[in-house]
Design a protein that fits this description.
The protein has 219 residues and is of the alpha/beta class. It has 2 domains: 33 residues; 176 residues, Vaccinia Virus protein VP39 (Rossmann fold), CATH 3.40.50. It is 43% helix and 23% strand. It contains 7 helices and 7 strands; from the N terminus they run H-H-H-E-H-E-E-H-E-H-E-H-E-E. Strands 3-2-1-4-5-7-6 form a 7-stranded mixed β-sheet, with helices on both faces. The protein is globular.
């Protein structure tokens, strides 16, 4: 049984490696100097929805290795800035400040606020995914839990009228989560950028116009 499982995993890993090597976005990222192919997901989302502009303050949750922060930092420029955070380390990027740690911990949250100079963010980005166990129900629950944690932080750091982009895996709990986004924001679009692999259940919620910050503040 263990051997059969190993062989199955080996075949799956081999297919993934072959797909990764031949992926046009992987090749494009290497050519254009992006840290990951996921950078093109944000580029495509931004082209569609015009989320980022020069001078904005952006928070990037689950940022490592830095593909989304790299894109956002280029767009917001020196007049703006990106506060990126992840439990994993991340090499420095221009116009990006990095906070390593779990953003659900008070000390990490407080440092994010300090880096924002206690001013609310214009946009919060979240391209997080759980560590995959291979148990679909557990992985799906983990992905929704991460998205809920991201929404909770967003409602505390985002300005009223600000925008939130979050990865969502379609499945158990995803519709309920989309309902939460519709309640918290004035508009919601669900996007599947071309750079997102067709077989993946991932989509992105593009939530526009935060209604109220946590604590009841409307400003």
């Amino acid at each position: 049984m263990a051997l059969q499982f190993y062989m199955a995993r080996s075949k799956t890993s081999g297919r993934w490696l072959q797909e990764h090597v031949n992926d046009p976005y992987v090749k494009q990222a290497q050519k254009e100097g992006y840290r990951s192919r996921s950078a093109y997901k944000l580029i495509q989302l931004n082209e569609r929805d015009r989320l980022l502009r020069s001078g904005m303050r952006v928070v990037d949750l689950g940022s490592a290795p830095g593909g989304w922060s790299q894109v956002a930092g280029k767009i917001v420029g020196e007049k703006g800035g990106v506060i990126a955070t992840d439990i994993l380390p991340m090499e420095a990027l221009r116009n990006v400040e990095f906070v390593q740690g779990d953003f659900t911990e008070q000390a990490v949250f407080d440092e994010i606020l300090q880096r924002l100079s206690l001013q609310p963010a214009d946009v919060v980005l979240c391209d997080m995914a759980p560590n995959i166990s291979g148990v679909n129900s557990a992985d799906q629950a983990g992905s929704i839990y991460l998205a809920e944690l991201a929404l909770d932080l967003t409602q505390r750091v985002l300005k009223v009228g600000g925008d939130f982009v979050v990865k969502i895996f379609q499945g158990e709990g995803s519709e309920a989560y989309l309902k939460q986004l519709r309640q918290a924001f004035t508009r919601l679009a669900v996007r599947k950028p071309a750079a997102s692999r067709a077989r993946s259940r991932e989509v992105y919620g593009v939530a526009r116009g935060l209604r109220v910050r946590s604590g009841g503040s409307s400003g």
